[in-house]
Design goal:
The chain has 491 residues and is mainly α. The chain contains 19 helices and no strands. α10 (274-290) crosses α11, α12 runs antiparallel to α13 (354-365) and α12 runs antiparallel to α17. It starts with 19 loop residues before the first helix and ends with a helix.
């Protein structure tokens, strides 16, 4: 079956018509299922480790998680660029360009992931020391990472294929990519950690197998089901890389800001001992599970906004941003309520005591409310990246990770580990609120550019082109959205 006939294939832009709130709910809901599955397995993994009764092992997982966060953030930044450029090209009706870019994006993701993953192996000792890991904790974290860092290309391919599936609106199959990897981890973790008595090594082996499955399912959906990949054209790779880089490079910088802030917070908490680090590690893994819908919004909103931008429907872009923020507020309120009521169960489940228990209780009772603002930042960043202003996303995320984290966390450290987390939440909230205000202003400005005639679409002012340059001679035509008859876009 040809690609244009498949549900959600490259030739079909499904987000340019229909209820925007429904699109947001479906994309975020299906995306959240996959994300929550992945992070829930991560949380269960920590639960199994906590049953071993050694705070050093739990703390080692926390330090290893920060390094892994850097890797994941790099891949996420690249997938933002992939989803944004492919979605815009689909929305503008250029199916063949979309196929070629999809192929180039997988080649680039694999190459960069090999360099970043294997390259990290040479700097694990100084990196863990800089984070505050010492003695047995540092040794255990190093052993775990020595196994997992080399499989970053598999993680990157899995994430890239999931983004490609989202870019054409196949949210369900995008979800199965992450669900497959999560299922493998859920099954293997207890078998390897306890059944074979491998402990931390078992968790590392489980992570490797999970990434293999993740990449395999994603490639099957992209290649077999949707035939999204075109013939690889080496002479056009530089042009495609340049087009992807206009969004991906700022997005990578944007996403790296978060682990930089997290690294400073981890270093600040480490001075209060393994129990405090274990408590912070539990919060780090609990957060994406509780707020999975909010995390999923950053990936769900992008294709919706990008397709409407590519089709020249600027008022729908504004409405999509509004509906996304409304969805976020309801999601955060529900998650905060569940955390507040269930904090006692969480503390007992992870055998937390002392500082660890205090930090978890603080987060569930009060600090979870800061996600009203953090969620706003996620949605705003998605709009910046997909509406041609990725530099704003970079500025806000780095502002939050530096000015919104370092001075606040440093000030809070004078009052203990709890003060570090409180300071981080306050600074993050300030930048989240500012980002939402700017995003709404940009969307309103864009909406005023839409003309009533369907074939008279003005070009918005962007920091980056809305579609890639397939060759130098086509640069002008591909750097602005082309008008597409609305009926044809959804046919």
């Amino acid at each position: 079956m040809p690609i244009t006939a498949t549900a959600g294939g490259v030739g079909r832009a499904r987000f340019v018509s229909g209820s925007l709130m429904r699109h947001v709910c479906v994309m975020a809901g299906t995306g959240a299922i996959g994300l929550i599955a992945v992070f829930a397995v991560d949380l269960i993994n920590l639960f199994y480790i906590s049953l071993l009764g050694e705070k050093e092992i739990a703390a080692a997982i926390g330090f290893a998680g920060v390094v892994g966060f850097f890797h994941a953030s790099l891949c996420i930044g690249l997938t933002i660029g992939i989803a944004a450029v492919v979605s815009r090209t689909v929305g503008a009706g250029r199916a063949e360009d979309a196929r070629r870019i999809a192929t180039s994006s997988l080649v680039l993701m694999t190459a960069l992931a090999v360099v970043a993953g294997t390259g990290t192996a040479f700097f694990l000792h100084p990196a863990l020391h800089a984070l505050g890991a010492q003695g047995e904790t540092a040794r255990l974290a190093h052993r775990y990472l020595s196994v997992t860092v080399h499989t970053l290309p598999l993680l990157g391919i899995g994430m890239a294929t999931s983004a490609l599936l989202r870019s054409i609106g196949d949210a369900r199959r995008s979800m199965t990519v992450t669900l497959g990897g999560a299922f493998v981890t859920a099954v293997l973790d207890p078998i390897l950690i306890f059944g074979f008595g491998l402990g931390l090594d078992g968790a590392a082996i489980s992570a490797v197998v999970s990434r293999i499955v993740l990449a395999a399912i994603g490639l099957h959906g992209v290649i077999v089901r949707h035939r999204m990949l075109g013939r690889f054209e080496p002479h056009k790779l530089a042009d495609d890389a340049r087009a992807l880089g206009t969004v991906a490079a700022p997005a990578v910088l944007t996403n790296l800001a978060t682990p930089v802030g997290a690294a400073f917070v981890t270093h600040s908490v480490a001075q209060f001992g393994p129990s405090a680090v274990a408590g912070a590690a539990t919060i780090d893994r609990l957060t994406p599970v509780a707020f999975g819908l909010v995390y999923a919004l950053s990936g769900a909103v992008g294709p919706i906004l990008a397709q409407n931008l590519g089709a020249g429907q600027f008022r729908r872009v504004q409405e999509g941003l509004r509906d996304s923020l409304l969805f976020m507020v309801v999601s955060v309120a529900a998650a905060w309520l569940v955390l507040g009521l269930g904090q006692g169960v969480i503390i007992r489940a992870f055998s937390a005591d002392g500082q660890a228990a205090q930090l978890i209780s603080l987060f569930c009772s009060w600090l979870a409310a800061s996600f009203f603002f953090a969620g706003g930042l996620f949605v705003a960043n998605a709009s910046f990246n997909n509406l041609g202003h990725p530099l704003l996303s970079t500025a806000f995320n780095w502002g939050r990770a530096t000015l919104g984290t370092i001075p606040f966390a440093w000030w809070g450290s004078h009052y203990g580990a709890a003060g570090v987390l409180i300071g981080q939440a306050v600074g993050s909230s300030i930048f989240g609120l500012l980002a939402v205000i700017v995003a709404f202003r940009l969307a309103a400005k864009l909406a005023r550019q839409e003309l009533p005639a369907p074939d008279a679409v003005p070009a918005p002012v962007l920091d980056a082109p809305v579609a890639p340059t397939s060759a130098h001679a086509e640069a002008a035509a591909l750097s602005t959205p082309q008008s597409v008859p609305k009926g044809a876009a959804s046919s």
